[in-house]
Amino acid sequence: MKSTMTSNLRTALLALTAAFVLSAPLVVPAAAQTTKLKMVLNWKYQGPQGMFFLADDRGYFKAEGLEVTLDQGNGSGAGVPLVANGTYDVAFGDINALIELAAKKPDDAPIAVYVMFNQPPFTVAVKADSPIKSPKDFVGKTLGGAANDGALKLFPALCKITKIDCTKVNITNMQPNLREQMLMQGQVDGVFGYVNTIRFSARLIGIKDDQIRFINYGDYGMDLYSNAIIVSKKLVKENPKAVAGLVRAINKGLIDSLKDIDASVAAVAKRESLIKVDIEKERFVATLKDEMNHPEIATIGLGNVNPERLKKSIDILVEANNLPRTPAVSEIFTPEFLPPAADLPKKLF
To answer: Dihedral, CA atoms, 331, 305, 96, 68, nearest 10 degrees?
Structure first.
């Protein structure tokens, strides 16, 4: 009898314990929790974006507790408002578009945490035999570009610095994939873009380098920073650990890309099998040389900025575009989430 009562009691206790376990919420250790981030790139999948995919493939995002979705973009200027309105958490986009938004809507503006393009890539490309030799020759001509193109957005600043009247230049919008064709067919006199984007897109359709010339903004006093990792203020406030982890992972991906460019481009090809690997490798090398290799990185490291230089950039844009206010450098970029200075690349070649 006693044995039966003990058995019944044991059964009841087991049932009660099971019910408690099943009804209790599942608690996942903090270390095992994953933060999902949506990131929009500057453009379609191309060689210079390999560092992001390499960081993903080698588990650097995962090691930081992150799951990062990397979407194709529609221009370096397009990502900034997409982060501002909450569509994306992160963008690889133009810091100059960020400056403009911060001047107009400071409460909505995101912030840059890692600047990758430290030399101005902005240009107007013309045919090699074009009579256009400098910005003053734009007057009376037709220039074309995609609506979100960074160089197009900065054109008023170029006009002001070079003392030409923007209203006397005809501007037409076009689909990005038609840019080089329209230039060579004479439908426009020049096209806006990034030097290497135009150069290598032209190569892909059989246009040789010596058939195109570039009127570069940097040659006319516009020593601007360009593409950066830009994050929402919401993410910075609510999950600073994720922001720091994101930057660490991307920095590691970049370092690996510098060591093995072939592996970096292969990571892009894994996502977009139609790319021409040889051309995308050349595009990446050219981007490193022309857009990421400012002499300042030997001192401050790639990813960081020179505050005085960034302030000059802000002043140029505010004056040229008659922006309503001048954002402080701290509104545009924060070094808070950078890895230690010793871990930032200081030499690319």
So the answer is: -80
